[in-house]
UniProtKB/TrEMBL annotation:
Official protein name in the record: UPF0145 protein M3202_07030
Record Gene3D superfamilies: Hypothetical protein apc22750. Chain B
PANTHER family: UPF0145 PROTEIN YBJQ
Family: Belongs to the UPF0145 family.
Extent of the signal sequence: none
Alphabetical list of InterPro entries matching this protein: UPF0145_dom_sf (IPR035439), UPF0145_YbjQ-like (IPR002765)
SUPFAM superfamilies: YbjQ-like (SSF117782)
């Protein structure tokens, strides 16, 4: 399945639009990760623990988006957008949206 942030797939015109697909992933807080991230904030640098968790969440959101599109009979998802929101109590939400399409 082709997954892209662009609205076209080079050399493959869209033959039909199947609809918008979305996925929402909510990541919970982790006391140990939060503790080490706070140390990183004090001494400076990047928080590898949070970056790893964000990457995991992003990959899961895109995987779910692909699975939903596949069930619709899509060959590609175009115009993918990823949004990240911080919720209360250290929880984070990742939302992926795109348009499921068939290609010529």
């Amino acid at each position: 399945m082709i997954m892209t942030t662009t609205t076209i797939v080079e050399g493959r015109p869209v033959s039909s639009y199947l609809g918008i697909v979305t996925s929402e992933i909510i990541l919970g807080a982790n006391v140990v990760r939060d503790f080490f991230a706070s140390i990183t904030d004090i001494v400076g640098g990047r928080s590898g623990a949070y970056e790893s968790k964000l990457q995991e969440g992003r990959e899961e959101a895109l995987r779910e988006l692909e699975n939903k599109a596949r069930r619709m009979g899509a060959e590609a998802v175009i115009g993918i957008d990823l949004d990240f929101e911080t919720l209360r109590d250290g929880m984070m939400m990742i939302v992926a949206t795109g348009t499921a399409v068939k290609l010529s």
